[in-house]
Amino acid sequence: MAFIPAASASALTPDDILYMETPGHFTLSADGGNLVYIRTAGTDLKPPANNGTLMYVDVNSATELALTGPDQSVTACALSPDGKKVAYAAMPREGGPVSMYLTNLTDRKRTALSGVTDELAGSFLFLGNDRLIFTGAPAGAATDSEVAIVADELPGPVILRTYSLKDGVIAPISANNDVITIWEPSPDGKYVLYKASPNPKSWETGATFRYVLLNTLTGEEKELFTLVEGYQDENQFAWSPDSSDVYIEKIINGGLRYPVENAAELLVYSPATQKLEEVPLNWERGLHIDIFNSDIEVNPFNGGAYLFLADGTNPKLVRATRSNGGWKMTTLNGRDAGNIFAAESDSTGSTIVYNYNSASSPPQLFRAAVSGSGITDPVRLTGLNQDLIQKDLGTSEVTKWEGAEGDTVYGVIRYPPGYEKGKLYPLVLVIHGGPNYADFDSWRDTWEFPYHLITDKGAVTLSVNYHGSTNFGLNFARSIEGGNYYSLPTEDLMTGVDHLAEMGIINRSQVGVTGWSNGGILTLALITKDPTLKAAVSGAGTADENSQIANTNGIVMDRMYYEKSPYQDPAAFQNILPVYQAENVRTPLLMMIGTKDPQVDPSSAWVTYRAYKEGSQAPVRFVLFKDQPHHMTTPETQARKIQEELDWLDQYLFSSL
């Protein structure tokens, strides 16, 4: 069947994606009446370009209003335990220093806070209703004035400190000598749970973290347990509204020589009984893991919690309640079940606010009641992306096929506007990063992964949850260890293409591929194995492990997935690394990276570019973005990345149709 391009009526532009509105950091008051969140326009942008606006929602009347104006860009916020006031940090949109404010939600009166430090403004929570808590160096700690850097030197302590909302006094509240990385105060202000390590970013074997309960009234600290974790591990602590229980997400790590976050289980601790116990999830895949939304898995109410369980592309929302000394798990059903990706509960568990979205529907916040196993009477609370949702965004679905090792592999298909069954469309594989991440049935369009700008050109996209992805079980996530880092995922990608061809969706001879981070890495591997691909875009990718281990992320990834380094066993890596197979490439390749990328060393990208330039029989283009990190932070560079990508696909994939 001939390819017919999509209708032009949808007319998506890069700005539709670059400045898409997102509801972040939403928090519901214990009585279920007040909701605050930060509405941002765009992703990864540094202030003032992120245009963060603090929003308030009267949940009962489903009305919302902005608490900050167009002159401020909000960077962080916290709702008081009584739900009556919100503290936030903001900077002028035209640029300038960060300030902090306290707003009364009853009369909307705003008060500027004095004596604010950069450490406080960076990240804070309420400790009770009258203080803020944050982390920082101890008072009087020496500033870094050394002219030399000593490799792997232990960092100085990072302790808990408080800020009084009454008089602006800052005081220490912990006396630890190690580095606190995550903390969560109880709503009544009596306790703080934190985790700390002498060297959280240790790259050799992982770091030993202490999990500690601090009594803020007595100063007593109780070590609950210790755990060896990786420097990238981020887990959630969440207190019940009555402060009787604190839930602890416990990371289950894979990794050969260094821990990698692959799954999670749940613990609960009661200060009154001093009892630490495991919450039996009765679910092999464990808690849902989203490394870009690390504080949404557990949402307590008095007597239990709402939990997100890992279920591949669509997390399972369950209600966990204590019952006769045990735990009862109830899977929730309803109109939006399966596409709820974050939630907050009132203290009774009878009302929730949640983020609904899908691969073809941008996010909105909803209020709903919970009765038994049912999510009922959903009411939309937000009106985000009004211009975007008026456009034809096509449709989407989850599909599955037999991939590497005979395992079932899941992927997300996004169809172009005006898709007609039976007609054959070009395909673009859009490969997720990680690899310990997943492609969800969720709206994830960003400058890195502009799915709908691609489908708007009349193509189908497929996002594959290749071996190594999370949320499909520990064994699936660990399957790429020990020499399978490239082989299993690339087989999953190629069988995914064959699957869509067999379904009669795509033209097998018109396939391109794009990805960022590990998606860029796998793009470079895939084109050494499949010479039929018409176009390839590798963002922040490398095919060379030797120079990649110059940075911490590189050596850690090497230790996670390989038994030896490329310097310890060079022969093994010569059989694995795509850089040694560049002569097989027949696909036009565009490479892009930031010159200050700390995750993928730019030198390794340079090595890859030159190897592919010498070996490939097709064009190779290399674009570097000045002074940009892994997640690029300026609108100009993000827009240039998207335009380079679309132009490359136009030239080598779509122009050949």
Automatic annotation (TrEMBL):
Gene Ontology molecular functions: serine-type endopeptidase activity
Record key words, sorted: Hydrolase
Coiled coil: none
GO biological process: proteolysis
Domain Peptidase S9 prolyl oligopeptidase catalytic residue range list: 452-653
The protein, known as: Prolyl oligopeptidase family serine peptidase
